[in-house]
Amino acid sequence: MKKSVNNTKSKIVSAAWQLFYEQGFESTTVDEIIRLSGTSKGSFYHYFDSKDSLIGSLAYLFDEKYTELERELDYSLNAVDNLIFLTRELCMMIENNIDIELLSRLYAQQLSKRGEKELLDHSRMYYRLLKKLVQLGQERGEITRQKSAAEIVRLYAIAERALLYDWCLHGGEYSLTEYAGTVMPLFLSGLQI
Predict the structure, then answer these.
(1) Which of 11, 74, 81, 118 could form a disulfide with 37 if both were Cys (CB 3.0 to 4.6 A apart)?
(2) On the CB side of 100, how many CA atoms lie within 13 Å of its CA?
């Protein structure tokens, strides 16, 4: 039953973000999301209070990308190289498939939210995969043990969010992927042994 529940929610989220990208957030209606997802109005309102509440689901859309990317990782490579690969691929997906206005809304919503902050949910695939790579790097002597894996993941997430936030502030006037390719290796060099 849980898989069916997650599948329904995932269908709604995927359909919504496809429509948001194709026609913009404001031009997309709940009825269009329901129609494209092949679900019902009851299902939509079971998971989401409104179209606005879908903004936070962008974090879970990123997790779908991380699930795909995990299958592409080469664990024989240095853990830092795999972390850089993840950042580059996520930034490329964001730059090519996520409207900058929607990403900006996500940050604004997360800052003003009192309840659940999806970006900080440590049960997400994002945090689990980062921790797995950091721990592997620490075990193999590639990443410092002077900080815990959890603290390194926290610092990494802060650096990555800073990149995305800055890109939004600048209205996407530079390549997020290229800039991340410069900034993240510089950041991670401080964690390598």
Answers:
(1) 11
(2) 15
The pLDDT value recorded for residue 122 is: 92
Q: Does one domain contain both 25 and 75?
A: no
For residue 97, give the nearest of 185, 176, 166 by alpha carbon: 176
What letter would DSSP give residue 92? H
Instruction: Determine contact, residues 165/174, Cβ cutoff 8 Å.
Output: no
* Cβ atoms within 10 Å of 84's Cβ, excluding its own: 18
> What one-letter code names the amino acid at 33?
I
Q: Which H, E and C letters describe 59-77, residue by residue?
A: HHHHHHHHHHHHHHCCCCC
End-to-end CA distance of the chain: 46
C-alpha 161: how far from its chain's center? 9
Q: How far is CA 188 from the centre of its chain?
A: 19
Q: Is 192 helix (H, G, I), strand (E, B) or coil?
A: strand
Q: Which residues of the chain have pLDDT under 50?
A: 1-3
Could you read off the pLDDT of 63-74 as tens digits, one per residue?
889 999 999 999
CA distance 119 to 158: 11
pLDDT score of 67: 94
70 and 151 housed in the same domain: yes
Q: Find the domain containing 22 and state its range.
A: 1-50
Q: Are residues 81 and 13 in the same domain?
A: no
